[in-house]
Amino acid sequence: MLAVQDMTLGYGDGPTVVGAVSVVVRPGQVLAVTGPSGAGKSTLLSAMAGLLPPRAGAVAVDGQRLRDRDHAVERKVVLIPQDNGLAPILTAAENVHVALLASGVAPAQARRLTAATLDRLGLAPQADQLVDELSGGQQQRTAVARGLALSGAVVLADEVTSELDAGNRQRVLDLLHEEARRGAAVVFATHDPEVAAACEAELHLSDGAAVLRRG
Ligand SMILES: Nc1ncnc2c1ncn2[C@@H]1O[C@H](COP(=O)(O)OP(=O)(O)OP(=O)(O)O)[C@@H](O)[C@H]1O
User: Fold this and answer.
1) Residue ranges of the ABC transporter domain (predicted)?
2) Which listed residue, 76, 113, 191, 209, has the most CB atoms within 10 A of its CB?
3) Three-state SS across 5-52?
């Protein structure tokens, strides 16, 4: 379970980006984080991933307060970042494979999981292409594949459908809901009201405040 307790976030000496956020995401739940551009969706997901220390409050996973990113990785908090975070000089398959090896999966199992996950994203034909040679949408799906392959206890997906056509957008949404059915707590930042409506809970950010609209 992911629990955000009365958290306030900002950068350096800058203004508060979002204040007094409290929300709980249980295993099996998908929470949409919505709000206009600049409202703080990525900032909130960064804090949930242990990347940005809160100015006040805390993030806890299964009752353990996150200290930093390493601690979050140990607690199986997976972040699929808005900018993909892929290594451009590796192939799609290598990007997934390397992440699995780094998380301690044995090489043969990592190879099988890589092929299976790329296939779920419709990327089997692109497996051996360099990321640099993939389209924006293919890169976005590769980042989703890498995130899903890691089987997180918490999966944080930051605008991961922004470059996808309708069919692939639905595919990614279905896969994120499948992650929840597997037992993950899923958080999905999105601009898209239709995508948010497909999630059972929605946290809306605006003018520095967070309001739970559903859930
Ligand atoms: N590294 C940073 N240093 C300083 N300020 C930042 C940093 N990253 C984001 N911000 C500021 O924090 C605020 C929230 O940005 P954030 O990226 O979280 O919004 P967002 O809701 O994810 O926007 P978008 O939908 O456009 O991705 C913005 O005012 C932005 O300028």
Assistant:
1) 2-215
2) 113
3) EEEEEECCCCCEEEEEEEEEECCCCEEEEECCCCCCHHHHHHHHCCCC
Domain ranges (residues) in the chain: 1-76+190-215
Give the pocket of ligand 1 (CB within 6 Å). Answer: 11, 14, 17, 35, 37-43, 82, 159, 191
Query: Which residue, by CA, sits nearest to atom 31 of ligand 1?
Result: 38
Residue 215 has a pLDDT of 73
Q: Across the chain, what does the average pLDDT equal?
A: 96
Query: If you take atom 1 of ligand 1, which residue's CA is the nearest one?
Result: 11
Chain centroid to CA 166: how far? 20
Residue pLDDT, tens place only, 94-121: 999 999 999 999 999 999 999 999 999 9
> Measuring from atom 7 of ligand 1, which residue has the nearest CA?
11
CA of 65 to the centre of ligand 1 (A): 24
Residue 163 alpha carbon to ligand 1 centre in Å: 19
pLDDT tens column, 154-202: 999 999 999 999 999 999 999 999 999 999 999 999 988 888 998 989 9
94 by DSSP, 3-state: which?
A: helix
The domain defined by 1-76+190-215 folds into Rossmann fold (3.40.50)
